[in-house]
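Holo model, zinc ion. Inputs:
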Amino acid sequence: MKVNFISLAFALVVIATCSSFQVSKEPKKPKNIIIMIGDGMGVSQMSASYYYAKKEPNFSRFPIVGLSKTSSGSHKITDSAAGATAISTGKKTYNGAIGLDMDKECAETLLEYLSKEGKSTGLISTSSITHATPASFFAHEKSRKSAASIAKQMLEAPVDFFAGGGLKYFESGSLIKDLESKGFSINTTGLDKSPLRLNNTSTKFGYLLASDGMPKMINGRGEFLKEASELCIEFLNKDEDGFFIMIEGSQIDWGGHANNSQYVISEVLDFDQAVGAVLDFAEKDGNTLVIVTADHETGGFTLGGKSKKVPFGGLVSDYDEIDPSFSTRGHSSAMVPVLAFGPGAEMFSGIYENTEIHAKILKLLK
Ligand SMILES: [Zn+2]
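Output:
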């Protein structure tokens, strides 16, 4: 009888726990938000990591998968500026626009909004930090080509940590001293750990580690993206109000434009390493929403079988040997993946416009 009472009590606890789970349908509000953008990373680029990585890619660790439609306000095929602006502001805009809507009016970016909410903010990219994707989170500019003006906007932007290339755009405008007078500690040599010696986020940190874009992975960039992400997270996590970080694997796109599959794949694998480090933190933290997506697909990249000659001049595709190839030197209109982990992640399943990523994040926070 005693055993039966114990199992009855256990069953009641299980029922009570389950029903309380069913009652709370509202998604949990995340404290921290990390958006990771693989520039040019379509489904094929992500798939490549499954054939070329030495172990299971970190992409597999996401419970929620969706697809985002990337057309811009002006074209069926977007550029990186309009693609990133859609994610950062929730507004479709014309190709080339940074943080502006179709009427060339300023659109508030997620970074600006979340900073006003008291969160610390960070930007990391393997391009110049003034390049289209990171710029679309802190600047407002009619043309992505105005790198000098975009660099200058960093002086007033609510950014607490940034790391990437682009030193020449800051040096040519003598902006390094200006940044320092705005409370930035600027480092142009390497990812030192000085942010971690502080107890708070009152000092800002800027790492400008290349004249323009960072080196390619195939030219020995090393673990910059993963290490900068870890440093930024550990630093901004000192803010009790939480943080927002955008991390871009910029050069997946550049490999696509170059129609260089080795370049593309090495950059996707590097991006996946950074994704792994971010997830390691988010899993431990429990209050961090991680979104991994892309602004568009680049190159019309695909993973077909290698063509083999057969007698009488015919060609067949060898289904046992992948021969990555491209259909364009530009971008394509293919949908791109959205992977989500953490509080509110369930909102990101389905097929939707890229602007919905912004809308879903705001909905979660309100
Ligand atoms: Zn591109």
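Residues 317 and 351 are 32 Å apart (CA to CA). The first helix runs from residue 2 to 23.
Archived with the compound record.
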